[in-house]
Design a protein that fits this description.
Blueprint: H1 6-29, H2 33-68, H3 79-111
Length: 119
């Protein structure tokens, strides 16, 4: 257990973003931006926690196998680093959700004004 699982990291970086797009955009179109953001952030945080829990179970399985063999072994990079990677990706995705939401809201608001009064 001396390497990161890049395929799981790539999955965390892409799949929740696509899921948020499917979940939050319908709320944004109904001008319920806050609710859409909360639901989207929930999707991202749940997926980050699921990935962290998956990593925890794998580390636990490997560590237990080492203990059963009569040796001690430690994951490299540490468990904290592995968890922090998924948490950081989740946080960046939530920040992106709120940023995109602001852009969508501004564009929808501008449509209600005459062209000379738009921002």
């Amino acid at each position: 257990m001396n390497a990161l699982h890049w395929q799981w990291i790539a999955l965390m970086a892409t799949l929740p973003g696509l899921a948020v797009w499917l979940v939050a955009v319908p709320f944004w179109r109904q001008r319920q931006f806050i609710f859409g953001n909360v639901v989207g952030a929930g999707v991202v945080f749940v997926s980050a926690l699921a990935m962290i829990f998956r990593e925890y179970l794998e580390i636990r399985r490997v560590t237990q196998a080492c203990l059963d063999a009569g040796t001690t072994c430690w994951p490299d990079p540490s468990a904290f680093t592995r968890y922090a990677i998924y948490a950081a990706i989740g946080l960046v995705e939530v920040i992106a959700i709120f940023s995109v939401s602001l852009t969508v809201e501004r564009r929808m608001d501008n449509r209600d004004y005459a062209p000379q009064w738009r921002r």
